[in-house]
Write a structure and sequence with these properties.
Elements (H helix, E strand, L loop, with lengths): L8 E7 L4 E7 L4 E7 L9 H16 L9 E8 L9 H10 L5 E5 H9 L5 E6 L3 E6 L5 E5 L11 H17 L7 H9 L7 H7 L4 H16 L3 H24 L7 E6 L1 H5 L1 H14 L3 E3 L6 H13 L5 H9 L9
Parallel strand pairs: 1-4, 4-5, 6-9, 9-10
Antiparallel strand pairs: 1-2, 2-3, 6-7, 7-8
């Protein structure tokens, strides 16, 4: 698609630890190009890889409109290596300058996820995938992060914590210290082991990675869905812990004094009805005016909304509605 260069283009980017996504959007809110490439978290991969990923994703997104980097009005990027308070943003601004983009707006991936999920409104976002974190943003832009302490002493409600708890519950059952549960046999089957004591070597000697322990959450959820009470309790607890963190963020920002918007993202919320249900139940018991909604947009669209607010672009409702309907089509392939 050819675009009048006077109309301008925004590049919205979601830069993660495994892939980088980019949308090129014109003044009317039309997606005129998309790009996808490899990882761009500068804390996890070397600088050359970051530059290559950013250059590839942006080049692919600009190619259909035949525009050059200097003709981009704004690059709005939410990067996995940048925190909610923009710690680490300077290094990424320099990276974008190095590949030809002089006007960049860098923030953390949590911030664009918040903007996308809540449509740019103030409120609280709960993120629960392999890890977990809560981000609250007030009406004046004030921010608070709750959690995000990692697997050693945090990540409550995450897939990692669920997998770890499943191992702990199974160990207690194996020892006779806790209720009997099908988690013992289910975990052995998933790990391809014959005796639960073999988990010691698998976890400690072979050093299971966080993502591998997180993957056990799927095994635990199958057990919970089959009616296993010990497994069900793991997911009920996860929902309660995530709701507790949202409550802390909301109270810190005094958001409970008015209509409180809450949304969620991540594999735990997407795959686990038990977590979502308990999370919702606890928050509704805690706040009389809470409104809990599924994410309105994907994070990369959140980056676009942040850019539009920054440079004064106004997207009409038709354009915004198109982004919602594209979640499973064009945006999913971006």
């Amino acid at each position: 698609m050819l675009v009048d260069e006077h109309m301008g283009i925004i590049l919205a980017i979601d830069g993660g630890g495994s892939r980088t996504r980019c949308l090129a959007v014109d003044r009317q809110g039309r997606v005129v190009g998309t790009g996808e490439s490899g990882p761009s978290n500068h804390l996890l991969v070397r600088r050359g890889v970051v530059l290559d990923s950013l250059a590839e994703a942006t080049s692919k997104a600009l190619a259909p409109s035949a525009l050059l980097p200097e003709q981009v009005v704004c690059v709005s990027a939410g990067m996995a290596g940048v925190d909610y308070d923009k710690t680490g943003a300077g290094e990424m601004e320099e990276a974008f300058r190095e590949i030809g983009f002089t006007r960049s707006l860098i923030t953390g991936d949590m911030v664009i996820a918040h903007a996308g999920a809540l449509g740019g409104r103030s409120g609280v976002l709960a993120l629960a995938g392999t890890g977990s974190c809560i981000l609250g943003i007030g009406p004046s832009g004030e921010r608070v992060k709750v959690g995000g302490w990692g697997p050693v002493y945090g990540d409550e409600g995450s897939a990692y914590r669920i997998g770890q708890t499943a191992l702990r519950v199974a160990a207690r059952a194996y020892d006779g210290r806790g209720p009997q549960t099908i988690l013992v046999s289910a975990l052995l089957s998933a790990l391809e082991l014959s005796d639960f004591r073999e988990t010691v070597e698998r976890v400690y000697v072979e050093k299971m990675e966080s993502r591998q322990i997180a993957a056990l959450s799927r095994v635990a959820y199958e057990a919970a869905e089959s009616g296993d009470e010990a497994a069900r309790e793991i997911f009920i607890q996860a929902g309660e812990e995530l709701a507790e963190a949202v409550t802390a963020a909301a109270k810190c920002l005094s958001l409970q004094e008015s209509e409180l918007f809450v949304s969620y993202q991540g594999s735990v919320f997407e795959a686990c009805d038990l977590v979502r249900a308990r999370f919702t139940e606890v928050l509704k018991q805690t706040f009389s005016s809470v409104i809990i909604t599924p994410p309105q947009f994907e994070p990369v669209v959140g980056a676009l909304l942040i850019a539009c607010e920054s440079i004064g672009w106004k997207l009409d409702q038709t354009a915004l509605a198109a982004f919602e309907t594209k979640k499973d089509s064009q945006l999913s392939s971006a």
